[in-house]
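Key result, reporting period 2: structure in, sequence out.
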């Protein structure tokens, strides 16, 4: 009885299972090859013309939408400026340079300083493994809010009257909101979602950072004005005590 052994290996190429490239069908003579190259060039020229026209139309649409957004941002800034002039004339708002130089930079220096140092120089690498980039920025924003709140109260401490102190606090609120919202508006104008062209790594951090800064600035404005109204009411009551009953 013959000894059993391994089956001999097939020396023929695989058939139905894996298939085989029929390279011999691609062999062309010089005339056929030249005709095929000319047909391919004609087809590619038509395709490139369609693609170029679509890209030009898309670029024109992007520029038109960008101009509209920039006009909206500029119009909003002009309206805010006109409102500020009206409030200044009515002595409701006061832009005290000394107060603003102390209060306004406090938020931006701390916030963007934390992003630059702890955020690995505005790189998306600051994104932790859990993917909570927004949460990390909110933490930086809360720390910056605390610094600006303390700086605002310190800058407002020597105002001559309670009315001027409240007007200077309104100036801090207006300047802080304008500084953050104009920047966020420009980002919205130049980098509107959805992102067909992905922004660079720096912008991938700065765009959400600017939006978080707007939210933090709004909260900080509310806290500052609430504290100033409480201080205004308390000190006004202490200076003019209510009359005693006979």
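The corresponding designed sequence is given below.
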């Amino acid at each position: 009885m013959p000894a059993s052994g391994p089956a001999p290996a097939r020396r023929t190429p695989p058939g139905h299972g894996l298939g085989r490239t029929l390279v011999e069908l691609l062999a062309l003579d010089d005339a056929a090859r030249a005709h095929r190259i000319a047909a391919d060039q004609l087809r590619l020229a038509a395709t490139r013309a369609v693609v170029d026209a679509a890209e030009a139309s898309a670029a024109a649409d992007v520029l038109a939408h960008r101009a509209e957004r920039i006009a909206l941002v500029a119009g909003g800034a002009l309206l805010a400026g006109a409102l500020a002039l009206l409030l200044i004339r009515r002595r409701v708002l006061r832009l005290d340079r000394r107060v603003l130089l102390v209060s306004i930079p406090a938020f931006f220096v701390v916030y963007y300083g934390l992003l630059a140092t702890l955020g690995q120089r505005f790189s998306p690498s600051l994104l932790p493994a859990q993917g909570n980039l927004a949460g990390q920025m909110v933490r930086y924003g809360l720390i910056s809010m605390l610094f600006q709140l303390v700086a605002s109260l310190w800058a407002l401490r020597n105002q001559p009257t309670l009315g001027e102190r409240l007007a200077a606090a309104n100036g801090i609120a207006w300047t802080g909101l304008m500084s953050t919202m104009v920047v966020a508006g420009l980002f919205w104008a130049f980098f509107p979602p959805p992102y067909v062209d992905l922004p660079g790594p720096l912008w991938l951090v700065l765009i959400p950072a600017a939006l978080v800064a707007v939210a933090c600035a709004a909260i900080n404005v509310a806290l500052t004005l609430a504290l100033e109204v409480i201080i205004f009411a308390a000190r006004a009551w202490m200076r003019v005590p209510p009359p005693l009953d006979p």
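Residues 66-239 form one domain. The two ends are 134 Å apart (CA to CA). This case is discussed further under Risks and Mitigation.
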